[in-house]
Amino acid sequence: MDDRKIAIIGCGNLGLSIVKGIIQHKDIPNNIVTATRRSLPKIQHLSASDINVTDNNKKAVKDARIVILSVKPYNILAVCEEIKDALSKHAIIVSTATGITISEMETVLGKDRTILRAMPNTAAGVGESLTCISDNGVEKEDYQIVEMLFSSIGTSIRIQEDLMDAATVLGACGIAFVMRFMRAMVQGGIQIGFDARTASEVVTQTVKGASTLIAAHGNHPEFEIDKVTTPKGCTIVGLNEMEHNGFSSSLIRGIVASHTKIEEDN
Ligand SMILES: NC(=O)c1ccc[n+]([C@@H]2O[C@H](COP(=O)([O-])OP(=O)(O)OC[C@H]3O[C@@H](n4cnc5c(N)ncnc54)[C@H](OP(=O)(O)O)[C@@H]3O)[C@@H](O)[C@H]2O)c1
Known about the structure:
The protein has helices at residues 13-24, 57-61, 73-83, 102-109, 140-151, 164-191, 196-217, 221-228, 234-244, 247-265; strands at 6-9, 33-36, 52-54, 66-69, 92-95, 114-119, 129-135, 154-158. By secondary structure, the chain is an alpha/beta fold. The site of NADP nicotinamide-adenine-dinucleotide phosphate (NAP) has 26 residues, from helix 1 and helix 3.
């Protein structure tokens, strides 16, 4: 068995982002990666980057050390059933599916399997994912292999499995929340005079700058806000108007609503 082979089952939005991240990361050879989906033509273009593509999941997982399952939650257990006899003894199975627990997967794959859950986001495609990882008590070396893989597409943190739904909302849905915030900023920018392209450029770099400030200094966001808010100035007037209209409250309620939806669905 090749100790480094990676199979990515279900290369849709997230699976493809992971593959793209791996392609950009020069330490992982592309030819050890096999990507699958049923509509093969949609991933055929990956062959040009030396990624193996197939619509045969059993073939893809044979000899693979890491098997990433990136199909929709309602397909996960059927895919586990399909591949279980083709998995090698030392395969590390990593599911990205929202809401499907490790113990549910164990009922199909068996309790002796090395199973982890990973919650990356679509920024994996540009090497900037934050991936939350939980596991069923795996060997240190197995965890390190998975951690190393997800480090190639961003950064990762280890969490308890009962926080996986929260990780889904904050980290994965979070991409959509931030995008909607950015879209609103661009719309506001156009109303005050910028053309759409310039507004988008200003917003994109401003969000990146704000994020980098927090990452670099580790300060509370409010500390950075205080530096921008001159007494009686335009920033505090804008911020307070947003709060009067429920800005923070609506974000918090949206996050809680997403979390409730995951709980209700499972
Ligand atoms: N999108 C995100 O930001 C994100 C973030 C974190 C976690 N997740 C989780 O990641 C998983 C994938 O999400 P997604 O947004 O990438 O969904 P998606 O775009 O629908 O991708 C899933 C892919 O799985 C393929 N598929 C379905 N059944 C298959 C099978 N039996 N064998 C091989 N491929 C199969 C589908 O393509 P075919 O129909 O062509 O086979 C589809 O392209 C979900 O469980 C989701 O909860 C997503």
